[in-house]
Design brief:
The protein has about 240 residues and is of the alpha/beta class. The protein has a single domain, classed as NAD(P)-binding Rossmann-like Domain (Rossmann fold). The protein is built from seven helices and nine strands. The strands form two sheets. Strands 3-2-1-4-5-6-9 form a seven-stranded parallel β-sheet, with helices on both faces. Helix 1 packs across helix 7. The longest helix is centred in the middle third of the chain and has 29 residues. The model has no long low-confidence stretch (mean pLDDT about 95).
Length: about 240
Amino acid sequence: LGKTAIVTGASSGIGQATAKELASKGYHVLLAARREDRLIALKKEIEAAGGTADYKITDVTSRSEMTALIEAGLETNGTIDVLVNNAGLMPLSFMNKLKVDEWDKMIDVNIKGVLYGIAAVLPVMEKQKFGHILTISSVAGHTISKGSAVYSGTKFAVRAITEGLRQEIDPSHEIRVTIVSPGAVETELTDTITDEDIITAFKNGQPMEMLKAQDIANAIAFAVEQPAYVDVNEILIRPRQQP
Ligand code: NJP
């Protein structure tokens, strides 16, 4: 039987690159996100390269959709080997702009989406006694800067939740838990920023060579491919030029 990996936020950026990377390593990949056209295109791309993939339209902020996603993943081989809780948003803003709707969205997607993924997959992995849960935090889950307060808050939370989960795993189970914390990666993540002052600050910032989504996909594949007794707890990865 082959192995199944589920990737949320697979329609873009890091999730898309990770899905392709895991498919190239022989995983059957279940692609999850809201934009169906992109998931269909990615499934075709993976299949054209000799891999296998399915997709399921999923909003990670819905607990029932996350449960249905894990159930769909089980249909292929009867196991879930890897869940990459990757979907996330980063509408940075200064707090006094009171972009409360954006705070709500970040909490829903970045924190609750991860929790719903864990809630759906943990009983499955405990039953099968193996599996690998990965979450995507950030350099912003280690440091706080002006404009990143709420985003950092969500990414600190992701690290806390993931590390707490790791400690609670029954040592007799081959279940691994990994945090991946990227610095600046060239993706569509900044498209959700509406605060003009942040957009201007980005434009006037020091130019640097950013990470590619593939660099993070490589880090995820590294963690996943370790032997079962090795749990890579966290990978913190910045562009060389990022302070
Ligand atoms: O961003 P982007 P990245 N339900 O915008 C999905 C973290 N990170 O690849 O639903 C389900 O290209 C959305 O899909 P769709 C970051 O915080 C990044 O950079 O179709 N999915 C899309 O596939 C995040 O956790 C950087 O709109 C939902 C994906 O999320 C992760 O990396 C640095 C959704 C976003 O793709 C991937 O972000 C860092 C929902 N409700 C951490 N809402 C960086 N890029 O610099 C969104 O430290 N998605």
